[in-house]
Every structure is written in C-alpha cells, then in structure tokens.
Design goal:
Strand order of the largest sheet: 4-5-10-6-7
Bound molecules: flavin-adenine dinucleotide
Radius of gyration: 19 Å
Mean pLDDT: 96
Number of helices: 12
Largest sheet: 5 strands, antiparallel
Helix content: 25-40%
Order of helices and strands: EHEHEEEHHHHHHEEHEEEEEEHHH
CATH topology of the largest domain: Uridine Diphospho-n-acetylenolpyruvylglucosamine Reductase, domain 3
Strand content: 15-25%
CATH architecture of the largest domain: 2-Layer Sandwich
C-alpha cells in the first residue's frame, strides 16, 4: 500500500519546525520515528498534505539531568533511552517498560516523543509518564506550555497538543530511591499490551508511604485508580492488602473488549498484574530483588 501524495519538508531546528507548523496548521503532520505514522499513511488512515520530518532536528535528541529530573528530548530514540546508563540508574521504570515496546528494530527508530504524542491506548510510555508524574513540555504559537499527564492525555490517540505545537521534551522525576515495576500481558512479546501496569511506591520502614498505579490497554489512555492506591498507602504489603488491591482493580477497571481480549479478561488480568507489580516494587524498594 502506498500513502496519498504529500509535500515533504525537513527542518533542521526547532524554530524552523515551529514556523512550518504555523504555516501548514491542520494540513501538516510531524514525522518522528515513523513507526506509527508510516503505517497510518500507507493505509491512508492519515492523509496530511505536508510531512514535516523531525529527523534532522538534532537539538531534540538528548538525555540530561537537572535538579532531580531526567529530561529526555522528544527525538531521543527509544533504544538509546533503554540502554542509557542514566536512565537505567535513575529511571529504571522507564528502562523496564521500554523493553516491552515492540522489538529492538522498532525501538531503534521509534522516539520517546513520538510514543507520548501518539498516545496509543495500549502503549507503555504514557502509563510510565502517568505513574511517575512526568511533565510534557510543548512549544508552539502559545509559547512554552508544560502539562501534567492528567491534562495531556485527553482521549484515545488524543493529547492536549495543538496541530501547530511540538512536544520538545519529557521531564521525569528521578526515582532511584523508590521501588518500581512494569508488568504486562501480550499475546507475543513485542505486541501491544492486552493489559499492563506501571507501579511505583516508597517505603517508610515497613509501611508504604506513597504509591501509584497506572494501567495501559484498559482504557482510552493511562488509567489510575485512586481507591487501589489508597488501599496500599499507610499499610504493609501483606498478602491481604495485595489481594484487596487486586479486587478493587478488577472491580473498577472499565476496559473495552476487542478481538484480542474480552472485558472480563482485561479486568482480571489488570487486577492480578497490579498485585504482582506492587509485590515486585516492594521487594525492589526493600533491596531483596
Ligand atoms: C510492529 C510494531 C510493534 C509496535 N509495538 C509497540 C508496543 O508494543 N508498544 C508501543 O508503545 N508502541 C509500539 N509500536 C509503536 C512504536 O513504539 C512507535 O515508535 C511509537 O508509537 C511512535 O513513535 P515514533 O517516533 O515512531 O512516532 P511517529 O510514528 O513518527 O509519529 C507518531 C505520531 O506522533 C506525532 N509526533 C511525533 N513526534 C512528535 C513531537 N515531537 N511532537 C508532536 N507530535 C509528534 C506524529 O505527528 C504522529 O501523529 C509498535 C510499532 C510497530 C511497527
């Protein structure tokens, strides 16, 4: 299959990119790693008149640390992030989740910004962003805007990004002192998740001081369940508490069914994964795993 005809431009800087986006508006489409966009073009599900290729915009590829944050430029390849010593040490949850994104060949091209901007409901990175409270930094005609995950991921494949805006970086709080775990179930390794969860927690002695769970594959975007997190905070991770979390998650999740999995399956798997991820995160926080 071949895409519909389009004009092509390859800016070399962020300012040039923003000028092109301003000029083309709804008719333009940014191309990052192309791992989601190119299939959409080939199937003619997307028919932009102009492709604005970000691959020559070198200033968007970086991983840096600043004041307790790890900052990742939008065009950083997923594979580079996965293998980065800084990310493995300071953002182990992201490194772990990246291992589930497609296959190494896809991660060699796919970018951190592309995955976050595309906002696939079964993607791993939006769930990691939601679990860690990452900040999405956007530039466009309204200047620089910074979004929390709750305000950025709006609906299925829909974010707060306007057609003339560029996601420039994602700022993750470093979390090497917390326990974290990412788990998912997919039919084959590398497939999108049928259900998955990113878990983070910090301990105060034996009790859990803080806890976040963000699910993927079970809603239009990353899903958090406040009641399940509250069942953990202030408690020890006993089998009873983990079972309570499993029940709450299974009860509260409201996924769709499709050819890959039924509603009931996704709800049950979500609950089991939440309990397992919390146990693993707890063991990692205690240094026993
Ligand atoms: C076989 C296969 C399996 C895959 N499996 C998985 C999986 O298991 N999990 C998963 O999460 N993904 C999976 N993917 C998708 C892959 O991770 C993509 O890399 C990702 O979804 C999009 O990133 P990209 O850089 O390729 O973006 P592109 O495909 O180039 O762009 C995607 C969208 O984001 C927009 N965009 C890109 N960059 C920016 C930016 N900086 N600012 C604003 N908008 C931007 C584009 O305009 C486009 O609408 C798979 C892909 C394939 C082909």
């Amino acid at each position: 299959m071949k895409p519909a005809p389009f004009k092509y431009s390859a800016p070399e800087s962020v300012s040039e990119t923003l000028a092109l986006l301003r000029e083309y508006g709804q008719d333009g489409k940014l191309l990052a790693g192309g791992q989601s966009l190119v299939p959409l073009l080939n199937m003619r599900l997307a028919r932009p008149s102009v492709i604005v290729d970000l691959n020559a915009v070198r200033e968007l590829s970086y991983i840096k640390e600043d004041n307790g944050e790890v900052i990742i430029g939008a065009m950083t390849r997923q594979r580079d992030a996965e293998l980065s010593p800084v990310i493995r040490r300071k953002l182990p949850l992201l490194a772990e989740a990246l291992g589930y994104v497609g296959h190494p060949q896809i991660r060699n091209r796919g970018t951190i910004g592309g995955s976050i901007a595309h906002a696939d409901p079964s993607a791993e990175l939006p769930a990691v962003a939601a679990a860690l409270g990452a900040k999405m930094v956007v530039r466009g005609p309204k200047g620089r805007r910074v979004f929390e995950p709750e305000k950025f991921f709006l609906a299925l494949l829909t974010t707060a990004l306007g057609p003339d805006e560029l996601l420039v970086e994602v700022r993750f709080p470093a979390h090497q002192k917390m326990g974290t775990a990412f788990l998912e179930v997919a039919r084959r390794h590398g497939d999108y998740a049928l259900a998955g969860v990113a878990a983070t927690l910090s301990r105060d002695g034996d009790a859990i001081k803080d806890c976040r769970l963000a699910f993927t594959g079970v809603g239009p975007g990353p899903v958090r369940i406040a009641e399940a997190e509250a069942a953990v905070i202030g408690n020890r991770l006993t089998p009873q508490v983990l079972d309570e979390v499993r029940k709450i998650v299974t009860d509260r999740l409201d996924p769709d069914s499709d050819v890959h999995a039924s509603v009931e399956y996704r709800k049950q798997v979500g609950g089991v994964l939440a309990a397992r991820a919390l146990r693993l995160a707890g063991e990692r926080a205690a240094g026993t795993r």
